[in-house]
From TrEMBL:
Protein's cellular compartments: Membrane
Signal peptide (from-to): none
Xref: InterPro entries: EmrE-like, Mg_trans_NIPA
Protein name as catalogued: Magnesium transporter
UniProt KW keywords: Membrane, Transmembrane, Transmembrane helix
Domain of life the protein comes from: Eukaryota
């Protein structure tokens, strides 16, 4: 009798309708040192250009204000009563400052594609250094010793943050990015932020009314700047977050595996970024 061959077991069927995992896969990668350095360079140049543009805009506004003051002093009866002061865009200096500012914003946006946000956010404090320089030499502003001390502390904090920041980043797909939006801590943060954005302007207006009525609230001169900066920072923070998400989406688009322009999440992120940036600039 010949050997009897054992029957081959039937292959296990593959369940093609398997439910997806709760969280989309996230790839943890270490960026090459030169790539991170490129992001740092873009971030530094962007922050410097943003602050430079702001100061050049201020210089243009100051020159317009001086010209307007001189015009009022030399006003004659022949001048029209409905005369309106020229808009900022009529100043070439202001326009140049705006161009520099926009260029810096684009560089900052590009930097998010090359380096971690935790590292880039701290680098933006370089604006305090350029503020000192431009304020003193360009705008002829009075720079106090406290400003110098504060700037030195800020620079030291920036150096520490950069040295201890991780160069490891997460490469997320669209679903993973959207799940970050749905994370309970982020939703709670948005709720608190929304409440603060409503309460702060109302309280700020109350302080102004009290001042106008001659009954200012104690320490108003300290409270108002803190409230103003906090309100602006809330929008500024969100603009950075949405810029990072937008950079990640464009990085996904560059791989050619999926078109993010066909996904509603891309356009929602773009609108939120433009809105937060617009409010922050208008502040």
């Amino acid at each position: 009798m010949g050997d009897t061959q054992a029957p081959t077991p039937a292959p296990t069927p593959v369940n093609m309708t398997m439910a997806p995992t709760e969280e989309p896969p996230v790839t943890i990668v270490g960026r090459a040192d030169d790539t991170v350095v490129l992001g740092i360079v873009f971030g530094l140049l962007g922050s410097i250009c943003i602050n430079t543009g702001n100061n050049i805009q201020s210089l243009g506004m100051h020159k317009l204000a001086r010209a307007e003051k001189k015009r009022k002093q030399e006003k004659t009866e022949e001048d029209p009563e409905d005369y309106e002061a020229p808009p900022p865009s009529s100043s070439l200096i202001w326009c140049i400052g705006t161009l520099v500012f926009v260029s810096g914003s684009l560089l900052n946006f590009a930097s998010y594609a090359f380096a971690p946000q935790s590292m880039l956010a701290s680098l933006e404090s370089v604006q305090f250094v350029t503020n000192i320089l431009f304020g003193k030499f360009l705008l002829k502003a009075n720079v106090t010793k406290k400003m110098y001390v504060g700037t030195v502390i800020t620079v030291l904090g920036t150096i520490i943050a950069v040295l201890f920041s991780s160069s490891t980043v997460k490469e997320l797909d669209i679903d993973a990015l959207f799940n970050c939006w749905l994370a309970p801590p982020y939703i709670m943060y948005l709720i608190i932020m929304g409440g603060a954005l409503v309460v702060i302007p109302s309280f700020y207006k109350t302080l102004e009314v009290a001042e106008a009525n001659g009954k200012p609230v104690p320490h108003t001169h300290i409270i108002k700047p803190l409230m103003y900066s906090t309100w602006s920072a809330l929008f500024g923070t969100q603009s950075v977050v949405q810029a990072k998400v937008l950079a990640e989406l464009l990085a996904i688009q560059s791989k050619g595996e999926v078109s993010v322009f066909k996904h509603w999440f891309f356009w929602c992120t773009l609108i939120m970024w433009l809105f937060t940036v617009g409010v922050w600039l208008h502040r």
